[in-house]
């Protein structure tokens, strides 16, 4: 299939070009070597037609040079296959046309691009053979559809679920390639140990699944031990342990904790452990661990062993009420401060951090980057200072303010705060007095 | 005034939700003197090490940053032989980047990060810094050696016992010379001794 016929361009003959591109010329020979199937169509050498070869495939192409033989104005007509292949490479091709000095170097570039394009398209667009699907569906049917948690639209990724004998749920993700079942799928599991699948071309999903179940059973004891720890002690770290996590940091008392590294293959043995905390608490624990090490009984659960060897009871989790934190001042971390409540709020809605006026003022006035002008202090929010925010601090003349606005004395801060500010205020203007209350507009 | 309420809340948070690999507690019920421990990160030369730090909370906290320094000797481009740390968040603006939105927990996490990613372009220890830049294998070897020597908790209980007995014994002059630079000299001596005992 050919593109539209070339539009006739200028007919001016150029002797120089003719010399360079003549049949016997160097460039002509180079082109012939590079693309033996691309032939000159006219005497002037302004049209070439033929085939360009890449990865053993020939693609029909026609190149039309303008009258001045400038490559950058050349027209290239391709067969539809070539067009499709080069679809994503238009920009690169244009760029190459601009930069190449002659047709030979451009053809070289075109071949390189074509090779890349061919490689990429094959990877992306070649669907697996029909047998792949029928085989996979047959496998899944044998396995049972109820084991499937997820299948992607291309049927190349499958998630299977399984339950071990203790009722724990586990997942395995299989990434199948087009050569399945000749080649094994990639398996992803949440295990503390490696999960290697043994695979022969006759294997199927069922084999993987049974290997998965066997591996689950072999790790049963380890997860039992970890589950007991997670359930009965206060695990500080990791926050939401995955099934593959072998480490636990458990609270023993105030600011004292023990770090355990459990061997998934031998969960009943004494784990690798060390203590964190002040020496006077940690040292006695170390002594106990050392002296009672012989009491460790592999027949008994890990947690029970730890309790006996360390002669302690592990405290249970202390849950903090987090809900009220958001109301507190971002600087003093309290809600009430000398009878005041946080009334300054960052006006960026994404931040919205509240502050006590006193806290914010004290921070901003200590910064060289803050500016004070009469009754307002401008500065950055300590929480979201990337967005330049300005905070307003109301400071105004004492007399007029008191008389004009009839402020109730309770709105004023404590004496100590006033004193502090009086020291600060001389920096900018001796006549002004700081007032800390929310309801006053200047 | 703000310090009291802030410290109270921070200490509760540090106890209930300590950052990964970090502990921090009040030293003998003095409000302004805290102790902290940072676990050496995996894949760093400080792995398996437990580093003790001293956190001093100034009167004007949180308007001023707490003073934090290492008690355990550490081989690091940004931490000097007295345990002082070169880190912007530990200094007040305009030179530093301290803000009241930070707290002890985030500072300790920053220090933990600094241990993982030293900043050789802003060095405190010029020799270690150039070593880090131009001879990484040697730096890693040295840092690992120091970790094993000073920060390793492989001292077991019997060693702890014997060290209490041996506490009056004089350590070798070289050791004491090193440890005298530190405020936490007693810990390092003890750790060294326990290694001898084992």
Outline the structure in words.
The complex is a heterodimer of chains A (442) and B (198). Chain A is an alpha+beta fold. Chain A has helices at 15-21, 26-34, 80-85, 90-99, 103-125, 130-143, 205-218, 220-232, 279-291, 302-310, 357-365, 398-405, 415-425; strands at 38-40, 47-54, 57-64, 75-78, 148-151, 157-163, 169-175, 186-189, 235-237, 247-253, 256-261, 272-276, 344-345, 354-355, 371-373, 376-378, 395-396, 433-434. Chain A folds into 4 domains: 6-125, Ubiquitin Conjugating Enzyme, CATH 3.10.110; 130-217, Ubiquitin Conjugating Enzyme, CATH 3.10.110.10; 221-323, RWD domain-like (Ubiquitin Conjugating Enzyme, Roll); 342-442, Herpes Virus-1 (2-Layer Sandwich). Helix content of chain A is 33%, strand content 18%. The model of chain A is unreliable at 1-20 and 395-442 (pLDDT under 50). Chain B has 198 residues and is of the alpha+beta class. In chain B, helix 3 (126-134) crosses helix 4 (136-151), helix 5 (157-166) crosses helix 7 and helix 6 packs antiparallel against helix 7 (185-197). The radius of gyration of chain B is 17 Å and the shape is globular. Mean pLDDT of chain B is 81; it is low at 155-198. Chains A and B meet through strand 11, strand 12, helix 9 and helix 11 of A and helix 1, strand 1, strand 2 and helix 5 of B. Chain A: It catalyses: S-ubiquitinyl-[E2 ubiquitin-conjugating enzyme]-L-cysteine + [acceptor protein]-L-lysine = [E2 ubiquitin-conjugating enzyme]-L-cysteine + N(6)-ubiquitinyl-[acceptor protein]-L-lysine. Chain A: Residues 329-385 form the RING-type domain. Chain A: InterPro entries: Fancl (IPR026848), FANCL_C (IPR026850), FANCL_d2 (IPR043898), FANCL_d3 (IPR044037), FANCL_d3_sf (IPR043003), FancL_WD-rpt_cont_dom (IPR019162), UBQ-conjugating_enzyme/RWD (IPR016135), Znf_RING (IPR001841). Chain A: It is an enzyme of class 2 (transferase).
